[in-house]
Amino acid sequence: MAGAADPTSGAKRVDIISDTHGYLAPALLDALEGADLIIHAGDITSEADWEHLRTIAPIKAVLGNNDHYYEYGPEVVALNRFSFEGLEFAVAHYREDLPVGSVDIAVCGHTHRARIVELGRTTVINPGSASYPRGMRGPTIARLLVADGRIRSLEIIDL
Questions:
Q1: Whether the Cβ atoms of residue 28 and residue 140 lie closer than 8 Å to each other
Q2: Looking at the 3D structure of the chain, how many domains does it have?
Q3: Within a domain: residue 130?
């Protein structure tokens, strides 16, 4: 439509990943370029990968069930709650640990299967696994564009 404003104009890009398990594929690294924020929902399993991701964009992350032997620093915890662009986020490796209903966006991993579900006021996002997917679908991430306290777009991206 001529003259229509782009609803994603001025939006910040949040790339959401999980369950990389010590492998950052070239396709994943290419996809993350240009992100304003990376969210990792656990099972990083590599201190070197953690440091690499931090060179791409600011990152919010949580510990997965395979991360307890690694040292990522005090900011990587079991449940990470934060605000970004006027939205309240919660990130946990397990879906059942998320405070659904008290945040705008809840992110989990663990299943290695991509899924987006609306539960009341909360959008629950599992980006699947960028490295070791389960099921018929290949590696995936979620991409979220946010601005002014609203989700402008949300999609699962096949790598």
A1: no
A2: 1
A3: yes
CATH number for the domain that contains residue 48: 3.60.21.10
pLDDT in tens, 129-149: 999 999 889 999 999 999 999
Domain range enclosing 78: 12-158
- Model pTM above 0.70: yes
- CB 115, CB 140: distance < 8 Å: no
Give the number of C-alpha atoms closer than 13 A to the C-alpha of residue 49, restricted to the C-beta side: 24
The secondary structure of 72-110 as a DSSP string is: --TT-BSEEEEEETTEEEEEESSGGGS-TTSSSEEE--S
* 26-59 confidence digits (pLDDT tens): 999 999 999 999 999 999 999 999 999 999 999 9
* Pairing mode of beta strands 87-92, 79-84: antiparallel
